Amino acid sequence: MLRIATILVPTDFSPDADAALEHAIDIARLFGARIHLLHAYYIVPQAATPWSYSFPAGLIDDVRQDALRRVEALREKVKERGIEASSEVSGEPPSLAIVACAERQKADLIAMGTRGLTGVKHVLLGSVAERVLRFAPCPVLIVKAPA
Asked: What is the pLDDT of residues 19-34, one digit of tens each?
């Protein structure tokens, strides 16, 4: 019998991620599962270029604090709907953070949104969802928000 006890919901706070969270809440209700929310922000380290640049003092901390505040608000939303929930943020590249978190949390399902980029945008930006599908330790539900 299929057993889902832990659902990992990565979020970038987009409408697609919100749609995935709604599906995860429905599945969590069906199985009595808990939801673990993850936001991964990745700030590219200073590159070696002939032009020097640096991040403004406190930028990374500000990004982290904003991410913590926003993911905590989502956690509270899930809890208000009667679902056990936890949350975390990561400064790793999103696909790596999601797969590592799924392993750590022993997730039975990952429910995540996708923007469904195509063409040049897909080539240049890649697809976090696609990379997660390749390396996830559990099934992955990919959700695109209705237009």
From this structure: 999 999 999 999 999 9
Please check whether the domain covering 6-143 is classified as CATH 3.40.50.300: no
* DSSP string for 59-127: HHHHHHHHHHHHHHHHHHHHHHTT--EEEEEE-S-HHHHHHHHHHHHT-SEEEEE-----HHHHHHH--
Q: For residue range 36-57, list pLDDT tens digits in order.
A: 999 999 877 665 556 666 667 7
- For 24, residues 6+ apart whose C-beta sits below 8 A from its C-beta are 7, 9, 35, 109, 111, 141
Structure-token pair, residue 113: 């949104």
| Domain residue ranges in the chain | 6-143
